Structures are given as structure tokens and as C-alpha cells.
């Protein structure tokens, strides 16, 4: 069988296609390798160990509250007929300054006045009943004494010619009846006296209810809330309805701030506090921790404790219920070595570490610190951490002890630490750097298998 062979032109065409495909594959592979190398190339960001002052604080958001708040309620039901006058002579309202005993409002007292008058009349009747019972008891006692004398004489004579048997029996019977009548008279008098006591209690209760119709301020203070209007009917029940809310003294205020359970161990009475409020953003106010409430609150699985902060308000710039951003001063350090927290958080890859330290780093990788630093810090009750410093083409660890932190910087101590020391604080990709500063120099040494971290 004859087999047709391709012509020379067709053969060259197939070779050209094959060469083109191979060239495209090589080009795509080169681009991919170049881009991967470009993306994986990193440069270090450095921070410098500085010397300065630091204040470690705990922050919280709380509410300005009156130090003592009095809820004025109504003990009786009725309609509000009139409001009283404040210290300046104006009708009491929001913000009125009042003195203890000042009339805040009056409730319609017509019914209670009638009840008091009725109770007074009943008391007078009860007292009259006592007088009548006393008089009757006096008469009964007189009759008893006469019957007693007759009975004594009858017993001496006995039944005889001088005293018939019937007269003897009559004298005995009269004595016993008189004695019983005296006992009844005494019981009647006692009952009448109990009636007086009951009437006096009823009058006292009615008079008290009548007095309750006049609502008075129990303390000196400022009305921060008025909860009723003239003509409104209040209904007294088991819980007295609230009419006014009085802040006893606005020259002394509190901030109630919830503090996370992780931080509450650093809060104690007498601790200095600073806070700001949105009403006066340029002013910083001072206070001290008064107490830590022990009844914890859990919100979305977060446990917090309310801390009471006492503050002076002599100028009365602060008003109740402002939102306060609070800072509790935990520690104050002066002229100490500080590093950014980013330098303490950063961790390298194993290939970036100087070979002499790789084995030790692998052993302590779970903690990120060297054992010598950890043991010494634990003994002195400091935290422990690791900083990374340049060493030729690599970086090496430097063990440090951690002091207080303000959330941005942390105090550090340790051998070899000095002001001006450069430490690694992070990395950034060369591709990002080249976009802003141009292509890297072809003379930049490549480290770690072709990837060149560079100082930034």
C-alpha cells in the first residue's frame, strides 16, 4: 500500500507551530516565575527603641451619674392639683433647685380631709363611750359595796327569828349579782378604751393620708426629672408611683463604667482616673475609683464589673447621664526604653533567622521567647517577649522582659537593649514598594533562596 508523505511546505508549517507553542509556554512560565518571585520578595519595616515616658491605662465607656438620687413618690391616689415653688420662687420643674421640706406638688385632698374629719368624730364618740362606761362602773361598784355589806350582815345573823331564810337568800343573791355587774362594767370600760385606741389609730392614718396629699422634697437637691403633670391622676399601689427624681448634690458626681473581667484585677479603690465627655471634648476631668461592684453582668458571653468613679463637679459643668470615656491609670513609667507593640507581635519564618538561632527558635516556637528570659521575667513578675534585630543577611532574636503597655508602646528591659536599636516591626512586599519608588536595584543582594528582605 502506498503511504502519502507530507510535502516540504506542510512539514515546515508543522515545525513552526510546534516552535511557537513551545515559545508561548516558556514565556508564560517565565512570567509566572517572575511574578511569583516579585510577589514573594519582601522588605523589612524597622522600628527604633526609644526612651520616653509611658502611662499604662485601662479604657472603658461609662455614664455620669448623680452620687445620690432620690425618687419622690406618692403614697396616696388622686389628681395632681398644683405644683409647688422652688428655691427661686418659680414653679418646680426640670432643673429646679429645691430645699428639704419644700412643697413639690399637691394631690386633691377632699376625700382624705373628709376621712380625717370622720375619724376625728369617731374618736370623740369613743372617748364619750369611755366616760359613760366609767360612770356606769362607778354606780355598779357602789351597788356592789352595798350588797356586800348586806351580805356580811346576813351571814352574821344567819337564818333566824331576826332574819328570815328568804331574806338571807335574797342578800346572798344580791351580792353575787352586784359582783357580776362590776365585772361586766369593767369589761365594758376596757372595750370602750380599746375603741378609743382604734379611733386614734384611724385618725392618725387619716391624718397621715391627708398629709401625703402634699408632696414634699425629702432632701436638698436638683430636680432632674418631673414625671407628672397638673390634672394627672396618680394611682398608689404596692409600689408608690414616681413623681420627681431629685439629685441630692450635683457638686459630687460618679461615673459608672463597666470593666472587662480580664482587666478588673488592675482596678482598686483610690486609683487615679481621667475621663472626657463629648460635651467638652477639649477638657480632661479627673476622678478616683470609689468601689468595684461585685455583681457581675454578662452580655454576649462577656463578663463585666461596674466600677464607680468619684469626681468633683464644683463648677457643675458635668451633668447627669453624659457619656464618659474613662482611662484608669494602671502604671506610670518615666525615662524607660520603649518599643512599638508591632515589633513584639511580629514573628519571622525559619529561613529568615540566623542559622545559629534556628534550633533554639524551633524549641521555643510555641512561646516565641527564649527560656532564659521567661524564667527571669517570671521571677520578677514581668511579661516576656522577643524582638528581632538584623544580623548580616539574617535576623536574630533578642529576649526582653515586658513592662507596662499603653496599647501602642511597651516598656522593655534586657541585655543588649539600648536607645536607637533597630528592631524588625513587620514586612512589606517589594512589589508594593516598587510601585511607589521604582524597580529595585539589580545589585540588591538576594537572601533566603532568591527573596531579598530589605530595610524600609
Morphology call: elongated
Q: What's the SSE pattern?
A: HEEEEEEHHEEEEEEEEEEHHHEEEEH
* Strand order in the largest sheet: 2-11-15-13-12-16
Number of strands: 20
Low confidence ranges: 1-5, 368-380, 438-456
Rg of Cα set: 49 Å
Query: Distance N terminus to C terminus?
Result: 75 Å
Report the β-strand fraction as a percent range: 25-35%
Query: What level of helicity do the residues show?
Result: 25-40%
- What is the overall number of helices? 7
The biggest beta sheet is recorded as: 6 strands, antiparallel, barrel
Category from helices, strands and their pairing: alpha+beta
Mean pLDDT: 84
Count of distinct structural domains: 3
Secondary structure layout:
Blueprint (H helix, E strand, L loop, with lengths): L7 H33 L1 E7 L1 E17 L2 E5 L4 E6 L13 E2 L4 E5 L2 H48 L7 H48 L1 E3 L4 E6 L6 E2 L7 E6 L4 E9 L11 E6 L2 E13 L4 E3 L2 E11 L10 E18 H5 L9 H9 L7 H9 L3 E9 L2 E12 L3 E5 L8 E8 H8 L19
Antiparallel strand pairs: 1-20, 2-11, 2-16, 3-10, 4-6, 4-9, 5-8, 6-7, 8-10, 11-15, 12-13, 12-16, 13-15, 14-15, 16-19, 17-18, 18-19
Helix pairs in contact: 2-3
Please describe what this structure looks like:
- With 456 residues, the chain is an alpha+beta fold.
- The chain has 3 domains: 59-66 and 249-333, Beta Barrel (Elongation Factor Tu (Ef-tu), domain 3); 75-217; 337-429, no CATH class.
- The chain is 35% helix and 34% strand.
- The chain has helices at residues 8-40, 110-157, 165-212, 341-345, 355-363, 371-379, 430-437; strands at 42-48, 50-66, 69-73, 78-83, 97-98, 103-107, 214-216, 221-226, 233-234, 242-247, 252-260, 272-277, 280-292, 297-299, 302-312, 323-340, 383-391, 394-405, 409-413, 422-429.
- The strands form 4 sheets. The chain has a 6-stranded antiparallel beta barrel. The chain has a 4-stranded antiparallel beta sheet with strand order 3-10-8-5, with no helix packed on it.
- Helix 2 (110-157) packs antiparallel against helix 3 (165-212).
- The protein is elongated, with a radius of gyration of 49 Å.
- Residues 1-5, 368-380 and 438-456 have low confidence and may be disordered.
- Residues 257-328 form the CusB-like beta-barrel domain.
- This is Efflux transporter, RND family, MFP subunit.
- Keywords: Coiled coil, Membrane, Transmembrane, Transmembrane helix.
- Residues 426-456 are annotated as: Disordered.
Amino acid at each position: 500500500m502506498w503511504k502519502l508523505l507530507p510535502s516540504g511546505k506542510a512539514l515546515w508549517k508543522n515545525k513552526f507551530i510546534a516552535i511557537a507553542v513551545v515559545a508561548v509556554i516558556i514565556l508564560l512560565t517565565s512570567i509566572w516565575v517572575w511574578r511569583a518571585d516579585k510577589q514573594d520578595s519582601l522588605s523589612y519595616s524597622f522600628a527604633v527603641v526609644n526612651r520616653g515616658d509611658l502611662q499604662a491605662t485601662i479604657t472603658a465607656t461609662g455614664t455620669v451619674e448623680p452620687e445620690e438620687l432620690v425618687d419622690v413618690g406618692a403614697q396616696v391616689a388622686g389628681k395632681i392639683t398644683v405644683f409647688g415653688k422652688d428655691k427661686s420662687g418659680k414653679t418646680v420643674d426640670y432643673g429646679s433647685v429645691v430645699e428639704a421640706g419644700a412643697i413639690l406638688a399637691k394631690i386633691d385632698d377632699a376625700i382624705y380631709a373628709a376621712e380625717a374629719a370622720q375619724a376625728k368624730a369617731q374618736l370623740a364618740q369613743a372617748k364619750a363611750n369611755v366616760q359613760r362606761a366609767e360612770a356606769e362602773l362607778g354606780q355598779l361598784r357602789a351597788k356592789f359595796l352595798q350588797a356586800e355589806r348586806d351580805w356580811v350582815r346576813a351571814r352574821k345573823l344567819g337564818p333566824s327569828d331576826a332574819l328570815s331564810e328568804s331574806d338571807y337568800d335574797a342578800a346572798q343573791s344580791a351580792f353575787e349579782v352586784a359582783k357580776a355587774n362590776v365585772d361586766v362594767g369593767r369589761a365594758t370600760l376596757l372595750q370602750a378604751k380599746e375603741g378609743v385606741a382604734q379611733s386614734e389609730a384611724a385618725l392618725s392614718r387619716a391624718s397621715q393620708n391627708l398629709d401625703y396629699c402634699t408632696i414634699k422634697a425629702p432632701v436638698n437637691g436638683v430636680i432632674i426629672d418631673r414625671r407628672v403633670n397638673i390634672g394627672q391622676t396618680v394611682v398608689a399601689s404596692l409600689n408608690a408611683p414616681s413623681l420627681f427624681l431629685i439629685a441630692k448634690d450635683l457638686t459630687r458626681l460618679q461615673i459608672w463604667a463597666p470593666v472587662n473581667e480580664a482587666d478588673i484585677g488592675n482596678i482598686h479603690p483610690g486609683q487615679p482616673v481621667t475621663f472626657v465627655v463629648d460635651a467638652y471634648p477639649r477638657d480632661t476631668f479627673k476622678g478616683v475609683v470609689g468601689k468595684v461592684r461585685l455583681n457581675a453582668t454578662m452580655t454576649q458571653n462577656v463578663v463585666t464589673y461596674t466600677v464607680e468613679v468619684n469626681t468633683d463637679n464644683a463648677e457643675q459643668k458635668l451633668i447627669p447621664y453624659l457619656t464618659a470615656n474613662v482611662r484608669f491609670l494602671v502604671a506610670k513609667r518615666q525615662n524607660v526604653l520603649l518599643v512599638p507593640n508591632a515589633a513584639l507581635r511580629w514573628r519571622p519564618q525559619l529561613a529568615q533567622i540566623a542559622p545559629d538561632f534556628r534550633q533554639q527558635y524551633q524549641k521555643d516556637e510555641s512561646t516565641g521567647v527564649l527560656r532564659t528570659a521567661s524564667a527571669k521575667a517570671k521571677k520578677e513578675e514581668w511579661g516576656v517577649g522577643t524582638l528581632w534585630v538584623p544580623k548580616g543577611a539574617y535576623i536574630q532574636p533578642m529576649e526582653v522582659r515586658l513592662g507596662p503597655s499603653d496599647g501602642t508602646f511597651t516598656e522593655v528591659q534586657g541585655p543588649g537593649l539600648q536607645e536607637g536599636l533597630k528592631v524588625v516591626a513587620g514586612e512589606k512586599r517589594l512589589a508594593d514598594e516598587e510601585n511607589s519608588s521604582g524597580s529595585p536595584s539589580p545589585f540588591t543582594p538576594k537572601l533566603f533562596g532568591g527573596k531579598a528582605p530589605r530595610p524600609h
